[in-house]
Write a structure and sequence with these properties.
The chain is mainly α. It has helices at 2-15, 30-43, 45-53, 60-64, 67-75, 80-95, 99-112, 120-132, 141-168, 172-179, 195-212, 245-265, 272-286, 296-303, 310-329, 341-367, 376-399, 407-440. It is built from 18 helices and no strands.
């Protein structure tokens, strides 16, 4: 990513040279803002190309105009669309049986943002089994070793280009400390809607009941409540056991094991997209100090996984309805200014409105009817976001805002976490269906 920023600096020098001057205070001007916003929009071409190459289940327009990406990239200002586009390009190369291109693109995006580390075990197993060992055909040890040397050299060359300058200037320890900031705590200042948000919420509920029952001294629950101050850092839990970075890493790998084992046994290109989304959701739900935007890559991967059979299409439509609602609402706390309030809510509502007819049209083409057939509890959950918004934006400011300022963030995180957990369950089902479907077709 430093090389990418270096390339942007050449244009910045022509637009506003002062923005390149190192300063302890932020530099901001209209030209600087316009230039940076323009670079985000221009680099979204990678997302457009990646979505097009993946033969999207949704129109590429809905992928590019994903409400979560608009909030994170174009309002909050980041380059996630470009990075997800490169990942989608890598996925398209897997499907096209171009393993070296897929490996190069994945290594590139991994070096640009370590958020995509979640896919490393899956890529490693798939490429080792499919490309190096040539499954399902037989191979010799000499040919396998030659292919391993080729792909290994390609990957290491990209890593060397990325880390080489830091190694030369003896900055690797500082770089690694910034890449893996374990001192920041299990959860972010705003809890990402994952397993640890529910875990922390459970701890707070248990502590509150303990205090209400007069057990504060017995359970050592004296003092200010932790985990809701909006600060970054280690925030010890009050009753439940602390969770270490090593424990979360082990849980992520454990959750990915069924996908990894199945991929090793029979690496199917057509099931790789669903597998990639599942391992991404596992990492989001169980990872250490995860940010809310980390749910967007698996969501957009799922948007680019096009089931071609009725069972998978129906499940995919339900999955996209629930998961996109939860993932998009989870990004709203990033845009907390009064000026952006209506625009941010409108983005999420308009995307949900546009998504339904697209899903119905695809169901009609595959299944012969255009009914989403959401389960009653799924429909109730989606409409529950209206109650959540009224509670956080109307009831809370009028009733308890001064005493409990963290309540809207906590409610948003917990409610979205429920939907994303359910979405991960459906994604696992979709992956299993895709594996069975490709097995039936002997698509190896």
């Amino acid at each position: 990513f430093a090389w990418f920023e270096c390339a942007l600096s050449f244009g910045a020098r022509e637009v506003e040279p002062a923005m390149l001057t190192l300063s302890p205070t932020p530099y901001l001007s209209q030209r600087t803002r316009a230039y940076q916003r323009a670079t985000v929009m221009l680099t979204d071409v990678f997302l457009a190309v990646g979505a097009h190459c993946c033969t999207c289940a949704l129109p590429a327009t809905l992928v590019i105009l994903d409400a979560g990406l608009l909030l994170v990239d174009h309002v909050h200002f980041q380059y996630n669309g470009m990075l997800i586009g490169i990942l989608l390009l890598s996925l398209s190369q897997i499907r096209a049986e171009r393993p070296l291109c897929a490996a190069a693109l994945y290594t590139l995006v991994l070096n640009m943002k370590h958020l995509f580390l979640f896919a490393a075990p899956l890529y490693f197993i798939y490429l080792l089994r499919r490309f190096v060992l040539r499954f399902p055909a037989s191979t010799t040890y000499a040919l396998a070793a030659r292919r391993l040397l080729v792909i290994g050299s390609l990957v290491m060359a990209i890593f060397a280009l990325s880390f080489g300058p830091f190694a030369y200037h003896k900055q690797l320890p500082q770089l690694l400390a910034r890449l893996f900031p374990f001192g920041r705590g299990l959860t972010h200042a705003y809890w990402a809607p994952n397993t640890w948000a529910l875990y922390t919420f459970t701890d707070k509920l248990a502590a509150a009941f303990g205090k209400a029952a007069g057990l504060g001294r017995v359970l050592a629950l004296e003092g200010q409540a932790v985990g809701t101050g909006g600060l970054i850092g280690e925030t010890p839990l009050q009753l439940l056991p602390q969770v270490s970075p090593a424990a979360t890493a082990a849980l992520v790998l454990l959750a990915q094991v069924p996908v990894l084992l199945s991929t090793w046994r029979t690496p199917r290109p057509q099931a790789f997209g669903a597998a990639l989304a599942v391992v991404g959701l596992c990492a989001f739900l169980l990872g250490y100090h995860v940010h809310e935007k980390a749910v967007l890559p698996p969501l957009l991967i799922l948007a680019c996984v096009p089931p071609t059979h009725a069972e998978g299409a129906r499940l995919h439509a339900r999955l996209m309805t629930v998961l996109s609602a939860a993932a998009h609402v989870a990004q709203l706390p990033l845009v907390f200014g009064a000026a952006e309030y209506l625009a941010s809510r409108a983005m999420v509502a308009l995307y949900a409105t546009a998504l339904k007819p697209v899903l119905c049209h695809r169901l009609h083409a595959i299944c012969g009817d255009d009914e989403l057939r959401l389960r009653p509890f799924e429909l109730g959950y989606v409409y529950g976001f209206l109650a959540l918004e009224l509670t956080c934006s109307v009831a809370h400011p009028l009733l308890v805002a001064p005493r409990l300022p963290f309540v809207p963030l906590m409610l948003t995180s917990v409610y979205c976490a429920v939907g994303i957990h359910y979405g991960a369950f459906l994604a696992y089902q979709l992956w299993a269906i895709e594996v069975e479907h490709t097995r039936d077709k002997k698509d190896l």
